[in-house]
Amino acid sequence: MLYGDDRYGNHDVADRPKDQKIEYVVIHDTEDTQNTMFQTVQTPSEASWHYTISSGDGRVTQHLRTKDIGWHSGNQDVNARSIGVEHEGFLAQPDTWYTEQMYQSSARLVSYLAKKYAIPLDRQHIIGHEDVPGPTTASIPAMHEDPGPYWDWRHYFDLLGAPLRATAGPNSELVTVLPDFVTNRPTYTGCTGEAKLCAPHGSSAVRLYTEPSESAPLVQDMGKRPDGEDSTIGVYDMTSRVSTGQTYAVAQRRGDWTAIWYLGQKAWFRNPSAHPTAVGSVGRMVTPKPGLSDIPVYGRANPEELAYPDGTAVHPDSPLPYKFLAGQRYATPGTVRGEHFEPSDVDSASPGRFVKGQALYYEIQFGHRLAYVRADDVDVVRATA
Fold first, then answer.
1. Tens digits of residue pLDDT in 170-223
2. β-strands 330-332, 284-288: how paired?
């Protein structure tokens, strides 16, 4: 699998958190059996991650020291800031693989890591592989979808001791996706064959439409599907859905429907007051500064050019193909500093170099995935209840 800028490799030697703060835990599923993945992680030319959780008994196996950087997320910037945790199994077969032993063991591990590295226990920092942004436009179509719509984020955060809940009233300017996992059962295809309907099952995901109607077209993701192909209800297609715990800025409300800002467009989902699929939240949003018709959105937070020492190649900015338009708002948990990790040779035992800039970015919930915008381009607005 290709990671970063046309590089293949197993991992990079670093000295985290001394040289780089660890900000994320990335939750994966293996999409293969544990034995096969253990062979993969021990192969120098393959990907790597820090921990694997077995399905049957929840056993934890550590593969890399957390101070080192695994090649697991498809985004070198996120790799440098994260710990990767793989879970044995297949996202389309949750009852076979996503066991209670796995959930409990994983939650104990992630609770420990979050406490050790001061990582907030929220869905902006405990993220799925499916939430990791593509670092460049060309990389977006190959980004992953695990752990998928059947991973029970609500239960997982209960086990983490950080329950997901409403923090504002139902008319807040921000909403957090929070359907009831058992009764929320969107239709999916592709669990046992591309065109076959999946068996009804509880889900953490909520589907998005272009208008407040389930007969309306699904919203599109021009980055994931640059050829213009329509979004689908396939279990591996997350282009038109949001996930439990994610927080979005409200664009409009109409009866039992709520619209959020999503990839530069309004995206509607059913949110009846009697059985809400999203709840009110407090927090901050960002919006383009006055006079800007749109601002660029990035999949990585690069340092400014002057931050690179002599002899170190400048990591080029690479705006994603989306538009963050004037008048739109997106939820943000706060800022990150522009940084770039310049690895040593793959075979080197010496740590790579972190280029640390002064430029600040806001992390935003832009679509299903995270994204970054320059702090100089936006104003911060606090959501009212």
1. 999 999 999 999 999 999 999 998 789 999 999 999 999 999 999 999 999 999
2. antiparallel
The string of DSSP letters for 102-136 reads: HHHHHHHHHHHHHHHHT--SSTTTEEEGGGSPPSS
Q: What is the pLDDT of residues 244-302, one digit of tens each?
A: 999 999 999 999 999 999 999 999 999 999 999 999 999 999 999 999 999 999 999 99
pTM of the entire structure? 0.95
The DSSP string of 264-288 is TEEEEEE--SSS-SEEEE--EEEEE
Non-local CB neighbours of 87 within 8 Å, separated by 6+ positions:
27, 28, 29, 30, 52, 53, 55, 97, 98, 102, 106, 147
Which of 92, 155, 96, 160 lies closest to 125, judged by CA?
A: 160
Task: Please give the backbone phi and psi of residue 108, each rounded to the nearest 5 degrees, phi first.
Answer: -65, -45
Separation of alpha carbons 164 and 173, rounded Å: 18
Cα 93 to Cα 178, 199, 295, 373: the distances in Å are 22, 10, 40, 36
